[in-house]
């Protein structure tokens, strides 16, 4: 007869191996992302011409936002994988940053599309707030909108009376502060509203720039580039919306594969949260001709320095 005490040990061993594999897959992706973002931000800081253009300032802001989003989500992921528990007072700031930066991304994409629209249709009489020295007003407004809704979401919920906010250790998940039906309804409605508004803005700017391309006889190249940029923002929005497919993918995986719930959750996190956030700013940075040249030079200099040290 098989010893019954071996089953828990085997299950624990398999779970530990699964956690190690997940961490070893996630951390290298995150480190590569941070290295690429650090290179691009270094280029922005060391080459002033980028900081004098609204488009590049907004892109730098998107890089910082996505870095904060990935950093907070990876920290939360590692805490859940390691079963690390701590008080809600320390958990809420992490969840707040993760939620606010997630909602901030579509707003940034809408802002970047509108910036291209303003640059094409008002090249000589550009509104003051869209100029490089005033664009921070729009950035602060976007950040304020992204932060105010998580505060409302957390304030309308009710915590379990048995849980002490300052001392009771909990596993830091969204369900800890977002468990009531009204909170879930508010969050779902807010996400639909955010992405619907952004989709309308991107579609509007794309159609207007497309029509302008057909009318103009001169400077068609710059208008065409703006049109492709707005189209790419639409693609970025689709990547962000992949995060909302997790209920569908969870159902399909459960029906067709015998996966554990934590494995399904990791698959969704890696494929629909981590990879889209990883790809979106990198593709945008490498497709820009000016940035691509500086990125190539930076990596070339780094490789020469590495060879020189050997």
Label the structural class: mainly alpha
Estimate the helix proportion, in percent: over 70%
Major beta sheet, specifics?
Answer: 2 strands, antiparallel
Total helical segments? 11
Succession of helices and strands:
HHHEHHEHHHHHH
Radius of gyration: 23 Å
Determine the strand fraction and express it as a percent band.
under 5%
Please tally the β strands and state the result.
2
Look at the structure and give the mean pLDDT.
80
**How far is the N terminus from the C terminus?**
60 Å
Task: Provide an overview of this structure.
With 310 residues, this protein is mostly helical. Helices cover 80% and strands 2% of the residues. It has eleven helices and two strands; from the N terminus they run H-H-H-E-H-H-E-H-H-H-H-H-H. It has helices at residues 6-46, 48-51, 54-81, 88-121, 135-155, 174-177, 181-215, 220-241, 246-256, 261-287, 289-309; strands at residues 85-87, 169-171. The chain has a two-stranded antiparallel sheet with strand order 1-2. Helix 3 (54-81) runs antiparallel to helix 4 and helix 7 (181-215) runs antiparallel to helix 8 (220-241). It is globular and about 70 Å long. The N and C termini lie far apart (60 Å). The relative contact order is 0.11. Residues 1-7 have low confidence and may be disordered.
């Amino acid at each position: 007869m098989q010893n019954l005490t071996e089953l828990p040990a085997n299950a624990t061993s398999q779970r530990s191996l699964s956690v190690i594999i997940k961490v070893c897959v996630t951390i290298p992706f995150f480190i590569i992302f941070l290295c690429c973002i650090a290179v691009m931000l270094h280029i922005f800081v060391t080459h002033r011409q980028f900081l004098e253009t609204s488009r590049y300032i907004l892109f730098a802001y998107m890089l910082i936002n996505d870095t904060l989003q990935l950093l907070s989500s990876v920290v939360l992921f590692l805490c859940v994988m390691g079963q690390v528990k701590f008080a809600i007072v320390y958990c809420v700031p992490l969840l707040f940053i993760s939620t606010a930066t997630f909602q901030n991304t579509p707003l940034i994409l809408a802002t970047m599309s509108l910036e291209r629209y303003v640059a094409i249709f008002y090249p000589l009489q550009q509104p003051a707030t869209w100029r490089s020295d005033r664009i921070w007003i729009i950035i602060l407004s976007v950040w304020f909108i992204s932060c105010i809704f998580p505060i409302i979401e957390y304030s309308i919920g009710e915590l379990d009376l048995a849980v002490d906010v300052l001392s009771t250790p909990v596993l830091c998940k969204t369900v800890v502060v977002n468990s009531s039906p009204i909170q879930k309804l508010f969050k779902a409605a807010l996400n639909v509203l955010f992405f619907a508004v952004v989709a309308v803005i991107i579609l509007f700017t794309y159609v207007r720039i497309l029509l302008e391309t057909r009318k103009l006889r001169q400077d068609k190249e710059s208008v065409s580039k703006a049109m492709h940029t707005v189209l790419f923002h639409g693609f970025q929005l689709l990547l962000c919306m992949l995060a909302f497919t997790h209920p569908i993918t969870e159902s399909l995986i459960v029906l067709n594969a015998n996966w554990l719930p934590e494995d399904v959750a990791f698959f969704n996190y890696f494929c629909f949260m981590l990879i889209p956030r990883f790809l979106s700013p990198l593709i945008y940075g490498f497709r820009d001709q000016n940035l691509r040249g500086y990125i190539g030079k930076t990596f070339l200099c780094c490789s020469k320095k590495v060879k020189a040290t050997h």
